[in-house]
Sequence to fold (179 residues):
Amino acid sequence: RIWEVHTPALDDKQDTFSENAEANGNTISVQALQVAVAEAEESSHEARRQLQKLESKRTALSKERKRLEDDLPQLEASKKAAAAARNYKEAGALAKQAKALASKRDELDAALLDLTTPLDAAQELADARARDHAEAKANLADRERASVVEQYKALRKKQRDLERARRTFAKRESASKLA
Fold:
């Protein structure tokens, strides 16, 4: 009868309890790391979104500035043509428009300059968050590997204990048949 076979390895309930506690601790550790990876990934995505917003704002300002740069020479040429034709009223209006465009261009230059610092900070933050995410993924992978190794060792130990119990049972069985 198997239930009558007693070996120190099988009778030691404390070992089984501690192995289960370690397995649960590993599971919790892996789950905590999985949560950390998910949080780091979300944080990284949010930083990238902020960076993209700033970059799109910079692009829009740059396009507007480029448009103004392209319009200014044409406006100056029209002003000169009006002055050459002795249409001073039109030339004055065109000069006023050119001055307004130049002022607007200077405002855009200032806005682009003001955007440089937040853009650099957002880039640094996005890079830091990406590194944090990569580190969290690496930690998770390491912990999962360690967990698998620990599970394998625990299973090998159980296998050896069962093999010892089987041999003990076989010895007792053969001894009882001889007796």
Notes: The chain has a mean pLDDT of 85. The radius of gyration is 38 Å. The CA atoms of residues 112 and 118 lie 11 Å apart.
